[in-house]
Design a protein that fits this description.
single chain, about 375 residues, alpha/beta, Rossmann fold, six-stranded mixed beta sheet, about 35% helix, about 15% strand
Length: about 375
Amino acid sequence: MKSGGESPSTIIEVKCVSCGAGFDHHDLLNTCRSCGSMLSCSYDLEKAKESMAKTWMAVRVKSLWRYVEVLPDVGDSVVTLGEGFTPVTELKDGPLLKDDGLIPTGSFKARGMSVAVSKAKALGLTKLAVPSAGNAGAALACYAARAGVAARVFMPIETPPSIVKECRIYGAEVVQVEGNIGDAGAMMRSQMDGYFDMSTLKEPYRLEGKKTMGYEIAEQTGFDLPDAILYPTGGGTGLLGMWKAFDEMEELGWIGPGRPRMFSVQSASCSPVVDAFATGKEAPDPQFPDGFTVASGLRVPRPFAGKQIVSVLRQSKGGAVKVTDGDILAAVHSLAKEGIFACPEGAATLPAYRELLSAGTIGRDEEVLLYNTGTALKYLDSVG
């Protein structure tokens, strides 16, 4: 994207997913100014079709910015390290695994932060803050460094020390907080000092970066989507992003109306989405108790978009599964024997897959994709 020319982005506006209020994408936006719900970008997909035929995609850059028509307008402020288009591998057990451990910063959080920091830079922001259980903070620190802006990261005290050190080496200010990511968020909001809030789903552009997971899965499976996708769910941005991508791709003419069944995977120590789904609730309990898990990215007892996550699971005729920390650690070692060093969050999808297979919820003849969201290299003290 070159300065001075017409932007290839076909973004129209940013809309509230709850009340439908629309906002100008040139404005600084966090949540809906009318009702406080999450915001989502809308695009002119008929216009996007003119340059985005699926048969033309193969020659494009192998990063998430290949989908520029359906990403925010950032002018010449793209902040990228080549994130995206990570491999899909078939496992011995039969399912496919998409490995975002092979992405800059070793985590899928780079997808969201590449797009969100690019938009922040385009809007003239110079101070960005985020509460994080680990990898989102590292990704913000990295992309803020790349963009030449300041980053402040608020992290629970139990965050793996290697990730805390990583953030500081990138140049971010790190504030460690007693409690969980919710407590880190509360501390952050009391210390903004002119910083802009980049929290999960409390600004509209990380979602746009995460939705490229769905676009890539479609391309990498020949536009014949898997029957089911198992996704480790903390804040749930990736799950919501993939679902958004599927809707956009249908409008683009890339896929039909069929959708994968979406399954959230959580730790038995912290499973608000699983419990809400199992009990028929519309959203997770806002008082869901905190619980420590080795998969720190899953320690989100009160996900901001919990209602939207549960809705996607039900719309897709999917479900939600919780697995023990013991099973998660065993899965890290099992996947490592296949050459995939998956983070605990991503590894959790393997025992969940086996449980769903054993229960007959997923058939042995179905194509299933497990999403590994990061590398275990950041968790060596806890997975060894």
